[in-house]
UniProtKB/TrEMBL annotation:
Residues 1-55, 124-202 form the MIB/HERC2 domain. This is Skeletrophin. It comes from Culex quinquefasciatus (Southern house mosquito). GO terms for molecular function: ubiquitin-protein transferase activity; zinc ion binding. The gene is 6041475. The keyword Nucleus does not apply. Gene3D superfamilies: 3.30.60.90, SH3 Domains.
Amino acid sequence: MDDGEGHVGTLCEIGRSGSTHSPEKTVVVNWDSGHRTNYRVGYQKQYDLIVVDNAQIGVKHPNIICDGCSKPGIAGIRFHCADCSNYDLCATCYGNDIHDLEHSFVRYQTANSVGVRVPPRQGALKIQLKGIFVGARVVRGPDWEWNNQDGGPNKTGRVMEIRGWDNESCRSVANVSWASGSTNVYRLGHKGNVDLRYVQPAVGGYYYKDHMPVLDFPESVPEWPKL
């Protein structure tokens, strides 16, 4: 249903006790391909998912600059070098192999979370992200509510930019240029909504599978992270 290793989706619903379609300790994920289904996040002590990005829910590390890309206020998961006195990376730079691969890092899922030490990246399993990134060809998706702004059903567009929704979140909306010539911004995880699905995915950065947090319930699921 997820189209394979490395393909990403958005958590769009958290299971509740008594629910007939999404019981407690499960979540519903909308994959960038448009498929939507349930996964376990502690149900029967099983965990199906990992988090690759939580910037969509507004996670930021104020006053901490990424030493890779120099962007202030790291958005999403932060990695702090355990072998250097003051060195931090955003998840994108961490996955793109900035800094010494033989150094260990401490992962911080939020600004207030307890750090988790991860082993060096040297020799670890590294996977490329695939889905709705810049360059992907898309059509209207499951939460579409914008009439024929795209030119009509099954009309395609191309993703020109991934950015945040004002100051609320980062990497939660996509700027799409449609074949009709119109351009607009659409939700891509903002408050759990996904307006698009891809017909041709694009590649994003990379992630180290064993270095990312397992999606648990409820501590690591404040709202709608990228999976």
